[in-house]
């Protein structure tokens, strides 16, 4: 396949749009595959109404009350899922009364609020807001929140191994130097009594009790372990003359989905004709979920920290009209957000339906705000 140009489209994507047009990217395989740019007279999000399940959604995710908020033995509350990945919210108040081992999923916890200690086979890790904590399948661990610290975490449960993306021609130190990843030092516990390890396998739970502390490792070596990365240590790739696709912000990979981090960065001020906001796109292969962590989300009206937007594939998405009109008034972003793009369609978990903001699709054609 080779690119064609019909009707006098500009030679460079996202730059020098014809007067009176808006650009849409129709792409395959996320932002990694074949793509065509279409130049519309009207914004493709300029609908008057949407009827049916394939609509943009916004959810007040931090308003969920997960089982782990009400009961120390509870676990996080799922809100979106498919066979590859489950997205959950955790608001644990008290330390786990057991040690947990997930034999089904690799776990990624993103700390939205709160501080505390993650105990693991390999040793403990202190956590704080902005931390990603990656817990590979089968590792014994326990969450111990600090007393009085409000806890909110986005939990991404993966059916396949979580790994780092290839950096290609950017080199191995782009985005973040792997040397900045933190791993635990062993801290063996010597104690007697009765200690429960709760194992999840194939969706069922098994408890195993030991007469000694389950975290008794005195030393370890290897490259399969728990690891930690804070968003402040990520250095986004930017271009002053071209709006880069979201895929350039990929932080972690798994089979059939990616995790990206949107962080403060300069906008495209090197060319007055370059787009500075996310371009309209009709992604044919991936659902898009964004968890808004902190800052000013200028491309989205009515969305605040702790909210999630969900855009299923098949329907357009892009900036709100006010952001598009005012894009050249901003010179940098100050937002922090986590994006999960999934190759297979997601489903909303019934327990999360009550936090869905039904009027979100209307935010492209009129000013509405959530209650």
Describe the 3D structure.
With about 375 residues, this protein is an all-beta fold. The protein has helices at about 65-70, 320-325, and strands at about 20-25, 35-40, 55-60, 75-80, 85-90, 100, 105-115, 115-120, 125, 130-135, 140-145, 150-160, 190-200, 205-210, 225-230, 250-255, 255-260, 280-285, 285-295, 310, 335-340, 345-350. The chain contains 2 helices and 22 strands. It starts with about 20 loop residues before the first strand and ends in a 23-residue tail after the last strand.
Blueprint of the fold:
Elements: E1 22-27, E2 35-40, E3 57-59, H1 67-70, E4 77-81, E5 85-90, E6 99-102, E7 106-113, E8 116-120, E9 125-127, E10 131-135, E11 140-145, E12 152-158, E13 192-201, E14 204-212, E15 227-230, E16 250-254, E17 257-262, E18 280-283, E19 287-294, E20 308-311, H2 321-325, E21 336-342, E22 347-348
Parallel strand pairs: 1-18, 6-13
Antiparallel strand pairs: 1-2, 3-20, 4-5, 4-22, 5-12, 6-11, 7-10, 7-12, 8-9, 8-11, 10-15, 13-14, 16-17, 17-21, 19-20, 19-21
Arithmetic mean pLDDT: 93
CATH class of the largest domain: Mainly Beta
According to CATH, the fold-level topology of the largest domain is Jelly Rolls
Name the CATH architecture of the largest domain.
Sandwich
Indicate the percent of residues in helices: under 10%
Low-confidence parts:
none
Q: What percent strand?
A: 25-35%
Cα-atom radius of gyration? 22 Å
Q: Encode the helix/strand succession as letters.
A: EEEHEEEEEEEEEEEEEEEEEHEE
- State the fourth-level CATH superfamily of the largest domain: Jelly Rolls
DSSP, total strands: 22
Total domain modules: 2
Shape: globular
Main sheet: strands, sense, barrel? 7 strands, antiparallel
> Which secondary-structure class do the elements indicate?
mainly beta
Number of helical stretches of at least 4 residues: 2
Query: How far apart are the first and last residues' alpha carbons, in Å?
Result: 49 Å
* Strand arrangement across the biggest beta sheet: 15-10-7-12-5-4-22
